[in-house]
Amino acid sequence: MRTSAFAAVAVLAGSVLAGCGSGSGSTGGTSGATAGGGDLQNAKVAFLMPDLASTRYELQDKPLFEARMKQLCPTCEVIYQNADSDAAKQQQQANSALAQGVKAIVLDPVDSAAAATIVKSAQSQQVPIIAYDRPIPATPADYYISFDNEKIGAMIAQSLVDHLKKENAEGGILQVNGSPTDAAAGLIKKGIHSAVDPSGFKLLAEYDTPDWQPEKAQTWVSGQITQFKDQIVGVVAANDGTGGGSIAAFKAAGVKVPPVTGNDAEVAAAQRIIAGDQYNTISKPIKIVAEASANVAWEFMQGKKPAGKATLYNTPSELFTPTVVTKENIKEVLFDSGIMKAADVCTGEYAKGCGELGIK
Hints:
Number of helices: 13
Strand order of the largest sheet: 2-1-3-4-5-11-10
Largest sheet: 7 strands, mixed
CATH superfamily of the largest domain: Response regulator
Shape: globular
Order of helices and strands: HEHEHEHEEHEHEHEHHEHEEEHHH
Helix content: 40-55%
Number of domains: 2
């Protein structure tokens, strides 16, 4: 699956490596937004991310997007902002980017509904919006790039269900969803239900975690441990942060940690999988979506109209397929592939586990 995803990016990249000269001036985007064409020397593109709760945005998305844009247009400037889970702050950041004359905005919305205002403001100024990772259902962006979030939910949940059945587990499952203001979280939630509901395991309770905050997930899971005690045989958590919070709740309660899912393949999650605390995560190499969004942004900046490979929420889209990671394949998927380095993960207490798995 990783090979096909990288191939898709390579094809897309090939269509946009036209240098940093003048654009064609043609219309781009479903809204008819154009980037203005003309001389793109020192042109600006905004990269607006949603929160600091997930470490990926600062450590991976930002530098990977910037590096790809530099390849495509060495003189272009990337305006990066992180809204730290504040939708109003993200609106201000978008307004500021527009005032600075950006030619395109790549937006990962804090609040998918509130982001409709940003889309309308940008498109009224002929600035295309590329929705990144999280869709904007109410008002179609000009393009949407992400991994398939509904499939992510189904994959992590089915992986857990299959494991519990193999272990002949008897009991129920907790479901820890993502933020209720994030449309991508809603897709993940739908995918989780598609695997859990027909599984034969009782869904004991579920929770929509405000702003994806691990601490809030931990507090909720702690309450469920008190209520359900020995009935909990697994936890489907929508990402590594909420998964980490869930695991922390069991440890704080002095209770054996059941299999817990995750998503994003953060370093901390890899360490927990190696240690046996977390059952799975999802590898969705950020390089794929970061570079694809830079490629699409650059097409728009040249006044072109990139075609989607799919359509979601009336938006031309490209949705990549991720990979489930467990202890059994973590070496191959995350380390042999070069996504992670042993030096960054196999530190301190995790060195022994890495050695046992042949990670070095």
